[in-house]
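Running this now, will post back.
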Amino acid sequence: MNKYLILILLSIPLGLWAQMHDSTSYFPGFDDSPRGNKGIRIAFYNCENLFDTQHDSLKRDYDFTPDGMYHWTSYKYWTKQKHIAQTISAIGGWEAPEIVGLVEVENQHVLINLVHNTNLKKHHYQIIHHESPDRRGIDVAMIYRPDKVEIIEEKALPVRFPFDTATRTRDILYVKARILFGDTVIILLNHWPSRWGGQFQTERKRIFVARKVKHLTDSIMKGNPCVKIIVLGDLNDSPTNKSLVEGLEVKSPETYTKQNLIDLMIPYEKQGVGTHFYVGETGGSWSVLDHIIVSRGLLWDCQGAYVKTGRAYIFRAPFLLEQNASNQTVPNRTNHGMKYHGGFSDHLPVYVDVFIKK
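Update: finished.
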């Protein structure tokens, strides 16, 4: 009898297995309880190269084809899709997350497969996506549950560098939504220029995008200091880098004033916890590259929507992590260099719960 029980337990999908346990089944502090009509969970996830297997002649995506550097086959593609769907489901706990921002997705086709041909199908997610001018073909996108989120406006905000007109980077995705058919939030989804070529050499571009976002949020808050703004995404910089400190002018939850944007990830950097593990010549370390940044209107000072607990969270489910050769806990990646590893992503997801004051 015990043998059959073990076989049954092993056959349970990992996301469902987590839901069968209490809120500490993933890590202390994880709240897996249903939010119902009280609030929504907003998540962000860098998928690490969600490419289909077809070559787009307008993009530099040949590496992710069967004949390319990563020998990207249908099996690898669908394994990737199932892993992303598993992660999204698990982030929500007993109830699927209502809004999920995604980056490093190639096109709308991979998003359609994600929401219609994986275990996410039952949640009836809708897609917001615009084709990006990024040379590699990676875009920003958002999926949302229309039963609790109503889209009022959405558009792609292009980024052009006057000092480097040849470079193309990801657009900023602007989404204005009504949550729980009550309060309105504005979401700015970002994927800032990478550090490829060196952090110092590429920093100017991230500062430029940061100032563009800051100008936009300032103009929105000028007319309404209680407006609810959420800036989230992979910014390719930590909270102490110039793009955040001087460009976006973020403050910590402990030191903000009504004019500031508040980076809810600052406490994690102080604790040495991160969303991305960088491997260097002398070893490796965690850094906070994925951010959830909010306006003052979401931190208790105003009526309507607010950040529950005043915190954002890094989703550190065990299946997203593994031990490397140096016995360090690192993300369970899809690829190690050019070698297929079969994991999930080189980034950990982040999320925040936004509730409505009744």
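Residues 5-24 have pLDDT under 50 and may be disordered. More later if anyone needs it.
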